[in-house]
Fold this protein.
Amino acid sequence: MNMKRFFFAGIAVFITFEIFNFIIHSVILSQTYESLSSIWRPDMMSIMWIMSIAIFVFSFLFVYIYSRGFGQSLLAGIRFGFVIGIIVICVPAFNQYVVYPIPFKLVIQWCIYGLIQCIFCGMVASLIYKSKK
């Protein structure tokens, strides 16, 4: 494993995830979240830093799995991002729908936006952690 490329790819994927999270959750879905404020934790914003740490760890795991043989091309990054998106975004979103009183439309939005986010992160990982020619 090339540690330098691994480190830079992990940081780049983390930044990409955080930018997408801001756009998706603070801009696009903010009105939906406000309308559901009664189901969220009252102290949620004060502990949001925990989510950033989890995303930081996830970003490096994302690159680690990608680097261990998923392929090292842009198309492989797209496929990888799609598969990871299904596993970590879509499946849990449907589980959340069963547990919490959220609209089904929100679940679909989480899936679509999350898949786009993961595909972009797969592309970032593939562009940085590419094999030397």
Observations:
- The chain has a mean pLDDT of 92.
